[in-house]
What we know:
It contains nine helices and six strands, in the order αααββαααααββαββ.
Amino acid sequence: MSIGHVGSRDDSYPGEAAECADAVQSVVGDVRRLAQISSNLTDVELTAAARALAVVMQQAEAALVAVTSDAIERGAVYRSTAADACQWVQRLSTGEPVAALVGAETASLAGPPVPAATEAESAGVEGDDSQGGGLSAGGMEPAHASRVAKLADACLVPANRVLRDAVTTGAVNTSVAKTALDHTPRVAAVLDGAERDQIFGWYLSLDPGAGSKQVHHVVSWWAGASTSLLNSALLCGTHHRIVHRDDLTATVTGERVTWQRAKAAEVA
């Protein structure tokens, strides 16, 4: 089953998915135009618009991962003229006409394959953003498109359920999610009792700007402690150094890690 929605796979009403898709395409022109006329807004309007754009930016990327995952699963990406999912995402981000990417036939969950657009349709219509004509964009950096594509592919793996739910709902950004995807197997290798979902949970709960993560042993190996869930904390490199510098210790439960100073501070 596809993961387009974290909840129900079905539309809330007939045609909901198509209606949402049309609404998303229609707003592209408004977003582009707003950048040209924002100086005409009041402070309140400007702040509200910036807030909405920031939320939309992250939510749009979350939706892009979900939609790309669906496209990979149903074979739309591999029937297209793109070499792979990364190129599929990157080419679409430039505003290339949709019809230029579809293959010899398109498929839908709602019915049988239908013929692709004609050559004339593939050229797009000037000013018609829904077909890609009139859009002029540099597109995503290849590394960004690759991140989206790899997360979309990973979302199809049942063992990545926690990651899938977090990234496709916009609960975390794609940078954090990709870090979790890359590093979770390395952490799992040294934490024998850790489930994959638990490790994903640790990564995804950390500050998005924290960078790469390291496993800290609450009681050190040299003191005879084992590598286990209740003797470990996941930290970024900076905070790992602070823990050792300030001689911090921790209490680890199934829900959280609480830090304390190992020695009472001396009073001058």
